[in-house]
């Protein structure tokens, strides 16, 4: 029977630092995306790591003998080259995975890049990624009372709650919500085929959001099929009732509940859109996992650099760089 072991493991060998570096691409593959990375993902990781190894060679440094200060020097070189903070964050993420793989092979005992941030960006607009906290998101969901004053379930409210859950927890876009058809749902496998921006992907919702979808389908009125099938989320009312909900209809519904939950209160808040929920999914997922690959797969980004924005956001939130300013406020209150 043909073995699936990497070529390097098919003969007797003694893993060494030099051997790991020479064969890191073959060894790292199994650590990315549960061993099934896309070609684009591999190219991005390999390019970033090769660039780092070239930097080490330029300074005659052994990559697996470096300490944190070396990695900070590498980060500073990237800053001096005027790379965007998101690009630096991605490069550090790739190098971090390189060292994580070496640790799994028991070649090194610690990850020297673990606490190296992507650096300060004085021109970065932290509010460029707007999101809400997990507590605020739960409050938003709880604001949607699915029953009226007569204790009767209101279909549109169940629909809106389901839409917001799928946007905030599963990261769906408005176009993906609108295009979702009943034929796309595999209830046995609990998967959904999503029709996105020029390409389709399967998503694997967590059990509670999928159960919410099933409850909505049980109580909703019959859908009017169109060229894409029987729509999951439909409009209510006399004019478009039971027809596929439009993207503007989704935005109107979400904005209504944003106002109810106090997320949209001032003129400044009017700029908040449904995409706030998608950013919430990406931000909270990275907060909990620190895994950009998971964020990329969940949000279905084509480029891992898109996902690295969430790493930069967390870096700014966690480090609070102004603590370095040597000023102590008075404590007379």
Summarize the structure.
This protein has 333 residues and is mainly α. It contains 13 helices and 3 strands. α3 crosses α5 (85-104), α5 crosses α13 and α11 (275-289) packs antiparallel against α12.
Structure notes:
The protein is mainly alpha-helical and 333 residues long. The protein has 2 domains: 7-124, Tyrosine recombinase, N-terminal domain (DNA polymerase, domain 1), CATH 1.10.150.130; 134-318, hpI Integrase, Chain A (Orthogonal Bundle). The chain is 48% helix and 3% strand. The chain has 13 helices and 3 strands. The protein has a 3-stranded antiparallel beta sheet. Helix 11 (275-289) runs antiparallel to helix 12 and helix 12 (292-299) packs across helix 13 (304-319). The protein is globular and about 75 Å long. It starts with 16 loop residues before the first helix and ends in a 14-residue tail after the last helix.
Structural class: mainly alpha
Oligomer: single chain
pLDDT average, as an integer? 84
Record the strand order, biggest sheet. Answer: 1-2-3
Helix content: 40-55%
- Unreliable residue stretches: 122-127
């Amino acid at each position: 029977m043909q073995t699936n072991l990497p070529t390097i493991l098919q003969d007797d060998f003694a893993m060494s630092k030099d051997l790991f570096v020479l064969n890191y691409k073959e060894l790292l593959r199994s650590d990315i995306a549960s061993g099934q990375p896309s070609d684009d993902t591999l190219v991005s990781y390999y390019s970033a790591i090769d660039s780092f190894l070239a930097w080490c060679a330029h300074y005659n440094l052994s990559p697996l003998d470096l300490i944190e200060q070396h990695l900070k020097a590498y980060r500073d070189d990237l800053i001096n080259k005027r790379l965007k903070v998101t690009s630096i964050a991605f490069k550090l993420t790739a190098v971090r995975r390189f060292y994580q793989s070496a640790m799994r092979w028991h070649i090194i005992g610690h990850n020297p890049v673990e606490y190296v941030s992507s650096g300060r960006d004085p021109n970065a607009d932290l509010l460029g990624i707007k999101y809400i906290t997990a507590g605020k998101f739960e409050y938003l969901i709880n604001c949607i009372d699915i029953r009226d004053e007569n204790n009767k379930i209101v279909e549109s409210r169940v629909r809106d709650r389901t839409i917001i859950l799928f946007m905030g927890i599963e990261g769906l876009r408005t176009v993906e919500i609108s295009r979702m058809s009943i034929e796309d749902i595999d209830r046995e496998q609990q998967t959904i085929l999503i029709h996105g921006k020029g390409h389709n992907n399967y998503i694997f919702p967590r059990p509670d959001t999928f159960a919410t979808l099933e409850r909505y389908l049980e109580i909703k009125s019959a859908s009017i099929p169109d060229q894409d099938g029987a729509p999951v989320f439909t409009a209510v009312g006399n004019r478009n009732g039971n027809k596929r909900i439009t993207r503007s209809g989704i935005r109107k519904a979400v904005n209504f509940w944003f106002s109810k939950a106090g997320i949209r209160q001032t003129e400044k808040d009017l700029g908040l859109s449904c995409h706030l929920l998608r950013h919430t999914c990406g931000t909270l997922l990275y907060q909990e996992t620190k895994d950009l690959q998971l964020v990329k797969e969940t949000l279905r980004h084509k480029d891992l650099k898109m996902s690295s924005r969430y790493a930069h956001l967390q870096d700014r939130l966690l480090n609070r760089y102004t603590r370095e300013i040597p000023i102590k406020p008075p404590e007379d209150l």
